[in-house]
Structures
1.
Amino acid sequence: MAAMWVYVRKLYGYAGFRLPLHLIGMIAVSMLEGLNLFILVPLLSLIGLFDSAGNGLPFVNLLSDALQGLPATGKLAVILGLFVVIITLQAVLQRAQSDWGERIEQGYIRHLRTDIYTGLLQARWTFFLSKKRSDYLHILTAELPRVSFGIYQVLNLATVLLFTAVQVALAVYLSWPLTLCILACGLMLALLTRTYARQARVLGDEATALSETYYGGITEHLSGLKEIKSNRLERHHLQWFRALTSKMEKNVIGFNRVQSMSQFYYRLASGLLLALFLFLAVAVFRVPGERLVMIVIIFSRLWPKFASLQSGGEQLAQTLPAFASLERLERDLAAVREAGNDATTDSEHPLVVTGHIECRNVCYRYDTEAAGYTLDHIQLQIPAHSMTAIVGRSGAGKSTLIDLLIGLIEPEQGTVLVDGIPLDAKRALALRDRVGYVPQEPFLFHATLRENLRLAAPEATEDRMWEALRLSASEPFVRQLPQGLDTLLGDRGIRLSGGERQRIVLARALLRKPAILILDEATSALDSESEVFIQEALTRLQGSMTIIVIAHRLSTIRGADQVLVMDNGAIIQQGAYHQVKSDTDGMFSRLLQLQA
Ligand SMILES: Nc1ncnc2c1ncn2[C@@H]1O[C@H](COP(=O)(O)OP(=O)(O)OP(=O)(O)O)[C@@H](O)[C@H]1O
């Protein structure tokens, strides 16, 4: 519940004066509804059902006095005219108010969505190392609509409450003992059906957990679909899917049962109450006919509102866990925000390395409780405009070292320095502004090749794109694509081979005109011919930018100015290519022999 209030307060913070205006609109609509009721009495007296005096009712007496001189038809025309005017006014106001409410609600949800997405973009990389991707994906896609629905329920409940308050006030004015009796019954029923709101909350918790598992599961399964199909694992996944969706189905049916049960009791009670009400009105309180008619009309409108308050309350209770999840994520994101990253602008002064990037006695581990370090007392220097190759067995710590060099993660001990100055969060952002990075698993969007390239440099001309494609050895196969640069690459670039994907991502990185080019195993998926092209490209680029390559294909790094050989988180060999190669007992020679 506390989380929900946080978002209601935020709603006020977002909507400002529009929210009270919205509430005033609601009150006006309810008032007009009440006013309409008072017109019924003179109308009914005109028809001959009541004595015309209006029996001391407010507005009615005023109206009766004003119409005294008119003939019966004139009176009828005026009263019906008033009736139509009030209904029209009410309809116009209600329409405007509903429009207004929707704008506030949708605007607010967009605002929350943008906040979360911005928070994710601004979060430190360590956040993504410790969280399951599907969890925040789930909040962005499934929980936010629930929060939106919850906010709608809050606004709706406020409307119903206001409406109820105005009508109850009218009813009290007309006959307070009768109204109090009815309200007491309503309160008793609300207390008796409280258990349904609790059940709704429990089902809401379960719905959140189930939907989290569902999102997590299908995200993982769909990413590993090729493995599932190749290994004939369809049956296991289908079993999992069926069991989970069956639980989800039961959860929704359960919630519906809770709602229908409470509504059932409200309906039952309404029959009993009406009988009791009429008995009390006629036999005990002896309420005059005009008032009785009006109270009956008021309560016949009010009772469904009681029921909708109950049902709205249950629906709100069901969405409460979504508010809690959203609040938790927002809190987590606020705690891991990268200093100086506003996610909307590039750094004012991108950091260009003129001297060297250096690691002084750097230690790092993913789990601070773990016994050993992932990177263990690293000492290195990467001179600007040089080409450095990092090699080593799988799991040696090569990718972790790169993350550290560009400030995605921070050392536990020691310092990373750029041109002799420690790399703090702000400088790391400025450094990454000039980095071109080709990750281990290159990512392409389901868009055309041109759009994929423009992602890195929106203003890039066609000539620059071809130049980057030439440099990355992509030109020959791109020329053969059916629509050239306008060819659709398919989901995650599925229409290209692994090697082709990597070369396109390399072209994209080059389009940024980076000061530092980083290739993480960029050559692992290349065929021998492309490998030669890449090697030539690297040779061409050498000297114009700082290049750091993590290479498994050792032939691509023959021209490297420096080779760092890693094992078990430590640098065990370091030096120029031929120097490291000449150590015949060293790991590098062994790796070369293995590849030969
Ligand atoms: N997010 C993570 N959380 C915990 N441990 C991790 C994480 N990423 C990597 N590691 C561990 O850190 C060690 C170094 O991993 P890293 O990816 O840096 O190695 P690598 O040399 O790049 O390997 P490869 O050549 O296979 O990519 C490995 O033991 C790995 O299991």
Note: The domain at 2-335 is CATH 1.20.1560.10 (ABC transporter transmembrane region fold).
2.
Amino acid sequence: MYKNDQEDYTFDSVETIRFESISVKDQVKEKEKHIEKLFDQKVSPMVMNPKPRGYRHKAVLSATNIKVGNSFQIRLGLFIEGSKDIKPRNGHYLHDAKIDEVFKTIESLLIKYKFKAYQKRYQEGIIKHVMIRKSFDSGELMVVFATQNNVFPNHRKFINELILAHPEVKTVVQNIHCKETHLVLLEEEKILYGKGFITDAIDGFKFQISSRSFYQVNPMQMFNIYDYALKIAEIKPTDLVVDCYSGIGTLSILASKYAKTVYGLEINSSSVANAITNKKLNNISNVHFIQGDVEDTLEKLNDPIDILIMDPTRDGASLKFIEIVKKIKPKKIVYISCNPDTQIRDIKQIGFMYKLLNIQPFDMFTYTSHVENVILLELK
Ligand SMILES: C[S@@+](CC[C@H](N)C(=O)[O-])C[C@H]1O[C@@H](n2cnc3c(N)ncnc32)[C@H](O)[C@@H]1O
């Protein structure tokens, strides 16, 4: 089980419904106020979401069975917050439109081929979740079926029909659940069609993304965040940069243009495998990826760190990681966070050693309560 499994929870509908009636301007105001309160100071105005609806390039729908006449039929939908119930809902205003089109086709094929949603109580059915990812650059799509056990009857015919309807689907993966779990994706998988990954591009660099690797859900705002983070870092050609929680190596590779050496530290083996391929794909020699928990890998780097970039999951960093940062004293820290509440908790631990120079929120997850925030700390 990976520590980033929280990224794979199904996107629920209730939270977004709460925000549906609030204007984007008011949502942003509320989020800015929240961050100002947390940091107890004025922050830069929020960078607006270039596409406030239809921005999600990764979406998960879960399977349920509904009664139709005298029998049951499969439907795809979203979990209702705080419950195990799935509300059939094919189409969501935050999903990229193409993704929702493909979900519709998949649902009708699942019905046509008489698939049933897996039901724990009766140990019956196969389909648990369907995840779709879309490359911003090429429009390529990846479809992942999370199934109970490894059977997928008629998968060749099913996939042929799917790609006939949507030639943009370049790969189909089956993620196999051999145990009961609340997670969407587990480690075991089988590539049913294509190469098992799609490719995206940022700033002229190519990135391979596989099903279980972390990749930001809102690519347009992701470009703005990376640009800003690298701008405030002011990386010099002599600098050693460490990108903690590096995912598939996007920021490490972008930073390699400016730095002498970059280390990317990441726990998820599938993301690290993508990162190493991405380094080769882009002919880069000054970036090194190390797999492991940042609590172990950061301390093992012997050279003084000029810039530490950190982009942890919503839980923020661990106390142990913060203690290591305090010991090794990087000259600058760029902290990218999708949860300002844990971000402020973490920087309070190191605050007295660093000057807080920038606080820049980004509206990355419009119509949800979440917000991305980037800060710069400089060693006093
Ligand atoms: C928010 S993502 C950021 C990824 C990357 N910076 C990006 O923009 O695509 C957080 C990443 O931290 C990784 N992670 C979580 N806990 C970790 C840990 N203890 N040590 C190393 N990496 C960890 C996750 O696997 C995930 O890839």
Note: Residues 1-13 have pLDDT under 50 and may be disordered.
